[in-house]
Amino acid sequence: MSAITYSDEDKEKGYTQDVVGDVDHTAPNDSVIADRYARYGKLGTVMQRILASGVEARGVERVPENERETKNMWNNLLMWWSVNCVLTTIPIGVLAQEFYTLTLPHAIAVIFCFGALGAVCTAFIATLGPQTGLRTMIITRFSSGYIGCTIYSILNILTQLGFSVTAVILGGQTLASINPGTLPLVVGIIIVALCSLIPCFVGYNLVHVYERYAWIVTFIVMLFLWGLGGHAGFDTSAQKPLEDTGRSLSADVLSFGGIIFGSFTGWAPVAADYNCRLPADTSSTRVFLLTFFGLFIPITFVEILGAALMTITDPAYVDSFGSGSTGGLLSQVLSPWKGGGKFILVLLAFSVVANNIPNTYSAGISMQALGRPFALVPRFFWVFLAFVIYTVAGVAGREHFSEILSNFLSILSYWTAFFIVIVAEEHFIFRRKNGPLGGYNLDDWDSPSRLPVGVAGIVAGCCGVAGAVVGMSEVWYTGPLGAKAGAMFGADLGFELAAAFAAVSYPPLRWLEIRLTGSCAREARDIFDCAIVVV
């Protein structure tokens, strides 16, 4: 244990702040992390052997500078391209016609506008990875405290597991549709889930190796789908007789926009997990731009494809969608190629593996971020547990894919909206170079007594929840403001109001928290720190 000292260069970057007291400021390397499991006797020996085989030891621990990598900057683009240029992105575009009866031009406009906003938000979160060397959920400790991080981690676990459920169901549906009656849907779901588990179990490096190249094949397949769909006949006015008008149309646009926003910001709670090994002096502008385009280009490209395929009016295509959902529609689109089309369906089915990898990997990280007792359990164990949970849930919900997707994505946009706002305001207002706190003391990441109490972040998050409740419009509930914004069924203003309520409440609450939790509160916070250690 030694007093923290920082170089002038560090202070100029705004990464640190002056603190009082001693703290272990050495970020543990991988070998130190692996040695922790020796305390578990024979079980610890098994764990150490697993880690010695090449499985990643590091979980939520901060990555020290001497273990940062100086290459693979383009992973910020290629990874997100691979993750989103996949089968699971197509049904999001399908929802424009299936649930909201939007014409193709209106669907495209919504995807572009709300997608750009969501990509900006997620790209910002990604810039914090190299700056801090921390996983995304751990970064929230600097705004919402230790307990706030636990709350966000629970939300993120549910989010990533929800994404995984939709991924394995759709992958299984597609495999089952290749030769109907041959492969049971349950078996297809299990196959896709197992393929997702392997790289996540091994860890960070294998995840990046896979995602660096996975996009190539699927991008070519998407081009094939565009061509075959165009040959079948896109009808941009097909939904015109069914499309709502006036306030009802506005409500459809806002509700579908919330889903699009959620499809982008769903990656915000994990965005820093995949570049925290880059050097601290990595250009934030480059990280932002590469992440933005790595999200925006493939997601809009594939979501618009999904919306376009729904404009095909050929009865065979309509019947295929009615009987087999998105998987059945894609099978019909590829039917002119016969055996070749079935091979492409196989590629599409397994493309969801690239999408499901970050869900699985980050679910394990978020389970460790729940608190120190959870962090003591190896990362690979939590990854395996996540795999079991979403596989079982996927099998149980396999007949309700569209309903799960629609409700899940719209609710997802609510909490990610206020999460992003709170982290951004902490970063730009309170942690800026000349701000009230002057930067981040990164070595405090696991010291509750030196982190914010978190009351401001938690209360602002509750305000965000209140905004979502009064503005949401779901099948099972419509908030008072959401009801007034639309016609018969209201309009979903959930994520907009969640962000607005959090944005207005957090700065004054945080300023008050800083004023009230200075040195006079140090003893009480040290007691809390000791309690966490005991637990």
TrEMBL record:
The entry's keywords: Membrane, Phosphoprotein, Transmembrane, Transmembrane helix, Transport
Lineage: Eukaryota, Fungi, Dikarya, Basidiomycota, Agaricomycotina
Domain of life of the source: Eukaryota
Flavoprotein listed as a keyword: no
Protein name per UniProt: Purine-cytosine permease
Transmembrane segments: 77-96, 108-128, 149-171, 183-206, 213-234, 254-275, 287-312, 343-364, 376-396, 408-430, 451-473, 485-506
Subcellular location(s) of the protein: Membrane
GO annotation, cellular component aspect: fungal-type vacuole membrane; plasma membrane
